[in-house]
Please model this.
Amino acid sequence: MSNYLNPTRSAHLAFQVSPNGSVSNLKKIGKMSQNTVLAATLAAGLCLAAPAAHATLITIALQETGVHSGAITAVANDGGSGSVTYAGGYGTFRSNNISAFGAPLLDDGSLISNTLNVSSAAAGTLKIWITETGYTSAFGSSQFLSGLTSNLLRGGVTRVEMITYIDPANGLYGGTILSDVVFTSIGSSSFTTNSPPLPGQYSLTHEYIITATGKGSSQDTMSLEYVPEPASILLMGLGLAGLGVVRRKRRG
Model:
């Protein structure tokens, strides 16, 4: 006597049961279904390994007391290219060279910036804001790695404070602080921090606060990047391993 799986499962296995109850002639069919499952696993891993796709914009803004009534003033944006630079004087700082890089040139959830600032003889404090808006998170919250480095402090520039932010409201110039370090000499620090809940689009911001008592210069760097969840990495690895098995079977 022969029995078969019901129609909802027969696309995967077919077998025969002999009169004495033993199972024989196990046959795997439906290779397309197997490949589909493996492909779906890989796709899920890739989706979880990085935040979702987005259309982002990087904006550079400057702020100093007594300039434009102390308001934050946007001076450049990347137009969606993932790279922006600004060169020019502002207030008591006669020369500012600022660059920033983000998506789509970098991985989703990443922002890197660099500044070189030269102060005049007058004392002053310059704030540099660099925000990338328009990221979309696939998670309720995530971890982010902040890297902060003071490469140069010379003359009258005696103090640089560096702050990284994430804003679940996708706003400019601020949000929830992820890291905050004051440098009075060259050095570097790094932090891994959990973000607040990210229900949709969010923004990343770097803020440099450069304090000068007179003529001097500073050069500083910041990075802020999304850290993939371990479970996401594992799932992506399983998907890649599964596709490797399928390719080897096909070659065989």
In short: Confidence is low (pLDDT under 50) at residues 1-32, 36-53, 231-236. The first strand starts at residue 13 and ends at 17.
